[in-house]
Amino acid sequence: MAATRKQTRSRAAPDVMFKVEGLTKVYRTGELDIHALSGVDLTLYEGELAVLLGPSGSGKSTLLNILGGLDTATAGHAWFRGDEITALSERELTQFRRNHVGFVFQFYNLIPSLSARENVALVTEISTNPMAPDEALELVGLDHRLDHFPAQLSGGEQQRVAIARAIAKRPEVLLCDEPTGALDSKTGVRVLETLTSVNEELGTTTAIITHNAAIKDIAHRVFYFSDGRITKTDVNKRRVTPDKVHW
Amino acid sequence: MSVLDKKLLRDVKRLWAQALAIAMVMAAGVATLILGVGAYRSLDETRSAYYERYNFGDIFATVRRAPEGLKQRILEIPGVSAAETRIVKFALLDIEGMAEPATGMAMSIPDYRQANLNRRYLRSGRFPEPDSTGEVTVNENFALAHGFGIGSTFKAVLNGNKRTLSIVGIALSPEFIYAVGPGDLIPDPRRFGIMWMSENALAAIFDLEGAFNSVVVKLLRKTDQAEAIKQLDDILERYGGTGAYGRKDQLSHAFLDAELKGLAAMSRVTPPIFLLVSAFLINMTLSRLIALEREQIGLLKAIGYRRLTIGMHYIKLILIISAVGIVIGSVAGTWLGQGLTILYADFFHFPFLIFRRNPDLYVIAAAISGAAAVAGGVRAVYHALTLPPAVAMSPPAPTQYAHLGIERLASLKIYSHLTMMALRHTLRWPVRSGLTILGISLSGAVLIMALFTLDSIEFMIDTIFFQSDRQDATLNFNDERPIRIMQAVQQLPGVLTAEPYRTVAVRIHNGHLNRKLTITGKPPDTDLSRVLDLELRPVTLPETGLVLSEKVAQILKARRGDLVWVEVLEGRRGLKRVPVTEISQSYLGLSVFMNLDALNKMLEESPLVSGAHISYDDARTDALYKEIKRTPEISGIAIQSASLAKFRETVAKNIYIMTTVYIGLSLIIAFGVVYNSARIQLSERAREFASLRVLGFTRGEVSRVLLTELGLLVALSIPLGWLIGYGFAWAVIRGFENDLYRVPFIIENGTYATASFIVLASAAISAAIVRRRIDRLDMVRALKTRE
User: Fold this and answer.
1) Same domain as B518, residue B452
2) Quick check: is B69 in a domain?
3) Which domain holds residue B526?
4) I need a surface site. Which of A190, B74, B107, B331 has the fewest CB within 10 A?
């Protein structure tokens, strides 16, 4: 897939990164079926920064988890660059995550026993074409905190280490689930700046889940979720930079 | 039912595997205590009741021939409440269908009256009619071994004449609970039997009318036994008394006592170890289990539950787990204990069995285990309860870790970051890691303790049967015989080598210490029956002086070069000053050796021998046995191969069963420690492992972190386990030591290896189970739920 990427880069029109058709996810808990996703259709393009907006339980996380290979669909299909990820085995999903996807979560999920640099190196060790851990941390503005352990970092700093860890392998997609959810506004803006700069500088397709409507203005497109469906899609004519966002 | 109680039941259901693992370890602790101590108490009680009901004597003595009238004088000794005189003689038995000769002990029972002392319990039939020379009552084991019933017959050589004896009764006696034949190590009822016969009949056969050659005395309580023995010796001296001895030295009692002491030692040493291990394990796992409930505890507090209510909720969880463990342990312990008691009782043949119910044991075991569990839980509950609810509910701050100083080696690629995670985590919690190592090592140690006895016994067998007593058989003469009898022995069919020996009853004095013993005289350089020094090299018996076995030297506090007094208790008697010239190794009995010539010279007698050690041609065994059965001078034969086979069989019965039980228990512990620490690790770090999975690490790679940690702890626990196991084994050996035998302290490398292998295997199994849980780790949920 790395070879395909180089070819597609040179083209003028953006390539399709993800294509989703009729994606459905049903959780069976006892007698009750919960429809987390009810036939979602969606296309994400290369280099795009998309915001997925909606109340909790609307299905956005479920979609992101399936796109990232963390979960499987009940029905429907999803393709990544023409490869159907809904048809991949557990082993292939692991490889898919390892090679193509970066994740950022609300609660950072850093390994407490590894320093910032090592948390990043953890990923670069198993990647084919990674950047140096120091470089990734420099990109998120943490080149002065390389040897600190998570316990010695603030929440915002921990989240930026998580972003550095996610981008260090030069993933084609970056999937962020409430990346600012646990942060105050000022720190959250700093994290968003990091995400947009990664999106611009590396061309990484980025999908950000949030229920914070203020964030939607930084995206190319905004998808509104409700009851397991996409109810509306907006294209931002004029994007704003994160420093203009407040909440 | 309150909501909290519902939660409790569901928690138990959710945690059932871990709860059961903890409960099983607890059960192991409880079971060992009940098993070991219970069996000991039951047997001890049974023995006491047996002695009491059948009036077992306190002092025993043999004489050459003493007039019956002496009995009155014996009864006049202060403190003597009863005395029974009797005739006891060895006889060679010729039993149909049995090639080798057996040995019988003919013992008189009074005619026309009930015996006062050492009464027999009649299992079936009756006692011989007065004056009947053809009727015998035999001991039960002997009858069982030959399939004898009432009316069965066999032949015995009594005072040189072969007679056919008819069995009229089968009985048990407190005097022969452990009926071991002359020259044997272990009872072999096929080759040794007790024959009770009419006193008048035996007196007629052995020309002992109006006389006796054995006496049993019962003392009043609080009588000075040593003084009574001394007075008895004074009376019997001129009738060829070889020195009276107390119950402590009575063969059956001494062996039984040694067995019971061994059991007691085992039950003193092992249950505390198991209880300690289980207490520690419960403490460790429960405290960590409850630490995981931190958030829920915070929530309950936030809703408004009182601390006490929440505390009790978790204490109840601990109590449920403890109750399960205690119940399983009590049931298993009682069951195993009864099994063990029956096993021992079968071996010893008691007429009845008293199972001691031991409520105190159950209370003690339950209290120790329960207290350990509650203590472990309370600490963690208290810790969680003291946090303000808001803090308790929010995820704990990331743990502080430190650099190890080996990070610079990262460029060498000798370890990965996954390994680093494992290392740092292990070192971050040194106490916890240390305790886990200790826990696992204790299971290894317990295994070594259970397994090493086989090494020691194998070593003992090798030393006794293949280094020291290498003869094929030992012949006992019915009296001391001139040394020229050896020519006749040499002439027996198939005999290749024959070595004479002589035994003399003596009392050896060193300062204020003294001990009644037998000196064995042998030719200086024997090839069959050899004396071994402390390094187990054969000793050439010096021309003068005594060779004391290590244990005798220890009892008498005698060293090489010391001069001791030998009080001869036979023949012309007398007191001789003799040097100790050598200390020998001996695992059996209290042996003292002397050069045969020197012994005869010391006794101022013409050369006499008591028996011979022989080796023979296997092809001519039948002819040899036939000839021995025809030889009136031979009163008994001990066959080494039969002894060894019986020894192994008995060891197999007793030790293997005990060992199997302990191995089972150690397995539970090893598994319990490893499984619980792995499971808790997994719960504590589910989020971390899920993150790794999200980052694209495979199941194998993620498992590696946990397995590396476990592997590290297990690896470190192994040498520690060896060390602790060595200590435990030493404690057990010390408990086993007695006058009859000393088990050498030998732990073969193979035992260390086996113990470690078993620990590794059970660690691997528990790791595999936990590994499956890592495989099923729900990434999404683990990342969504806050710690």
Assistant:
1) no
2) no
3) 495-616
4) B331
Whether residue A104 contacts residue A175, with contact meaning beta carbons closer than 8 Å, is answered with: yes
CB B136 within 8 A of CB B197: yes
Same domain, B646 and B786: yes
Nearest residue on chain B to A150, alpha-carbon basis: B398
Top-confidence residue, A191 or A48: A48
B211 domain residue, yes or no: no
Instruction: Give residue-wise pLDDT tens across range B170-220.
Output: 999 999 998 888 877 778 899 999 999 999 999 999 999 999 999 999 999
Instruction: Give the closest residue to A235 by CA, choosing from A26, A48, A16, A2.
Output: A48
Q: Are residues B526 and B597 in the same domain?
A: yes
pLDDT of residue B496: 94
pLDDT value, residue A94? 83
Q: What is the pLDDT of residues B550-578, one digit of tens each?
A: 989 999 999 999 999 999 988 788 899 99
B779 interaction partners in chain A (CB closer than 8 Å): 70-71
What strands, in cross-sheet order, belong to the sheet with B211-219?
Answer: B80-86, B211-219, B59-67, B245-246
Please report, for chain A, the start and end positions of each structural domain, with discontinuous segments joined by +.
Answer: 46-71+88-244
Say if residue B1 is exposed, middle or buried (CB neighbours under 10 Å; 0-12, 13-18, 19+).
exposed
If one counts the domains in chain B, the total is 4
Number of residue pairs across A and B with CB atoms under 8 Å? 90
* Contact yes or no for B401 and A107 at CB 8 A: no
pTM of the predicted model as reported, rounded to 2 decimal places: 0.74
End-to-end CA separation in angstroms for chain B = 29
Which residue, B368, B394, B420, sits at the end of a domain? Answer: B394
Residues of A in contact with B407 (CB under 8 A): 118
Q: What interface predicted TM-score (ipTM) does this complex get?
A: 0.72
Q: Which two tokens stand for residue B39?
A: 């069996």
Higher pLDDT, B777 or A9: B777
Whose tokens are 């601990």? That residue is: B318
Residue B631 resides in a domain? no
Same-domain status, B422 and B541? no
Q: Are residues B249 and B390 in the same domain?
A: yes
Chain B closest CA to A49's CA: distance in Å?
21
Torsion-angle region of B136 (φ positive above 0: left; ψ -120 to 50: alpha; else: beta)? beta
Q: Is residue B573 domain-shared with residue B538, that is, in the same domain?
A: yes
pLDDT tens-digit profile of B502-543?
999 899 999 999 988 899 999 998 999 999 998 989 999 988
Residues B784 and B647 in one domain: yes
**B646 and B784 share a domain?**
yes
Tell whether B38 is covered by a domain.
yes
Annotation: CATH topology of A46-71+88-244: Rossmann fold (3.40.50)
User: Residue B287 above 50 pLDDT?
Assistant: yes
Interface residues on A facing B, Cβ-Cβ cutoff 8 A: 61, 65, 68, 70-71, 91, 94-95, 97-99, 101, 103, 105, 107, 109-115, 118, 121-123, 125-126, 147, 149-152, 158, 165
- Put simply, the answer to whether B398 touches A122 (Cβ < 8 Å) is no
